[in-house]
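Hey everyone, long-time lurker, first post.

I ran two proteins through the pipeline my lab uses and got sequence/structure pairs for each. Pasting them in order. The first:
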Amino acid sequence: MSGSPILDSSGRVIGIHGQAEGEEIYDEQSGNVLRLKSGFSSGIPVGTFLRLVQQGGLPLTLRVENSLPAQLTPQEIASIAPAMEPPPAKKNWNAIDWANRGNQLYRLERFSEAKTAFERGIKIKPDFYQAWYGLGQVLYTLGEYEEALNSYDRTLQIKPDLHLAWRDKGIVLALAGSPTAAVTAFDRAVKIKQDDYVVWYLRGNLLRKHLQAYQEALKSYDRAIKIAPNFAEAWTGKGRALYEVGYYEEALAAFNRANQLNPNLASAWHWRGLLLLNWQQPYEAIYSLDKALAITSDNYELWLIKGIALAELGRYQEAVASANQALKLKPNDPEIIDFLNSLAYFN
């Protein structure tokens, strides 16, 4: 429910429920207006709330803890499973009922059952675009990209202005290796809904990573940031695009802004560290890389980059230890092995 707290396993507030994408639909069979949930569900992280409280100077006395929540035991997980179970299907269900069941099962990651539920809805009402869209989401998650694209195409035949379908079609086209077509789909999405900062961000990623169109990517990131100034991922993407074209000072400023907005965003620390290393600032690079490793210690690239930074400082034993950790995570990687061989002379 919007406005209600999100709790961790220790009963601590970690977020606030926001708005879920969806719509109200008139059901001709029952004569009722029914709610259909689809797309994303938004939430406000508690860190954002705390930052806004501080900025607003509100006199709230809050107890803040930074420890990890208690790990649930198998018995505890089993005890809450019934509460997560969707209601049993009924013989008289309409297409909306089946689509809502499909969405529930999709969020529970029971994808095969979700696929069946959406197909049941489509069988009852073949032009029910919401069920076609939901089916596309399931197929996309299952990695069945061609079938997912067929579902999105069917959705858009019925409802050409559904920006969610254009958005997700773009994502699947990118994953399927068709970046130019994906950009076209994203363009259609933002033409329909110009304030969808997620699409502008995804469009920027696509232009930067797959098409090396850095200036266009920067324009997309800037549109995302204009709409959502506190979207740390867009600042990180902008920093990466600026880094790629050699604007190091501007890139560093973008990464710093991302770190301010979300100190737990590993990718921003990662790329900040890489930038500083290439900028001949190994001490500062190691600081950023350690920040990233504290968040995601299983990233072999971070360990390798840290090893390179340590070697530049003449700390060869530490460099070897860091590179060995990288090799442990990615055995037989030629780049890591070459780096370790290059250090043999100094040990």
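...and the second, right after it:
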Amino acid sequence: MFDGRPDITQLPDLAEGVGRVGPVRTRMPIYVDLLPPCNNACPAGENIQEWLRLIKENQAEAAWRQLVRDNPFPAIHGRVCYHPCETACNRVELDGAVSIHSVERYLGDLAIEKGWRFNPPRNNTGYRVLVIGAGPSGLSAAYHLARVGHEVEIHDAGELPGGMMRYGIPEYRLPRDVVDAEIKRISDLGVKIVLNHPVHDLLEEQRAGRFDAVFIAIGAHLSKRVEIPSVDAGKMVDAVDFLRNVASGEKPKIGRRVAVYGGGNTAMDAARSAIRMGAEEAVIIYRRTQEQMPAHAEELADAEQEGVKVHWLRTISEVSEEIEVEIMELDEWGKPRGTGKFEKLPADT
């Protein structure tokens, strides 16, 4: 009943309509559980926002222990990881990404300085696991397996553990004492590392050692191959083999002028290492533009600062006394295509 007074609310007609005496929902919310952008982008799956919170509260050791729950190599990652976490950081849109990479390196170095060690496993499961390969994958697997109480043994064909961390990354970027310190921490956890031990028969190796499981981590020591006509194949050097030889203390024979084909971070490392090995000139030949190169901008800047030159939109067509390169251009889809124009570049290697 309505008496015409505007200050009195009408009663709802419950027979025909919906009561409005309380909140009425006509839609159900959908709850989505997502990782923070930095965590989601982290290749190691670190709980980044948690250890950042701890370091902010001046709990450095607690932050380090939170970090190594996911990644046993913070001092190494803090030097060589290309921090996609910072690219994904929300603060990029506000002022600038949080310096996650630098904080991780700080925690890793602080742990080495303070002598922090991993907590020993609480129990022994009685299972034995064989890991083949002492590179980053094999060492990480051994670490996580040992933490839950398994007895882990690593067999590696090399003289020293580390894999590509030791033999694929130049020492000026990753000091070997840092690699040794982080690997020793895993050994101190109880992981046994057997070196100079190539595995030829997997099943026999497993039976002889009475292992319950095997994790194969034989590494990524192969370069990408390209077919380049060459009059003198001796002038062609594989970049990964070159970096491995340099890291092993050898002195690969290279000429005074070195040309590196490719635009990735390995190409930058090879060119910078060539200069350190005595080359008078190192040039990088890349068939796309600077904006399209896979190498990170800071790697290119460091290489150019050391004297490395880059020839953009060039591809090698033949190697003889000199290197013949074809000048490229981008088509309407941004892909390189040949122009039919060629030029010569002097190069010994």
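Reply from user beta_strand_b:
Welcome! Quick read of the second one: The chain has 13 helices and ten strands. Residues 233-345 form a domain with the FAD/NAD(P)-binding domain fold (CATH 3.50.50.60).
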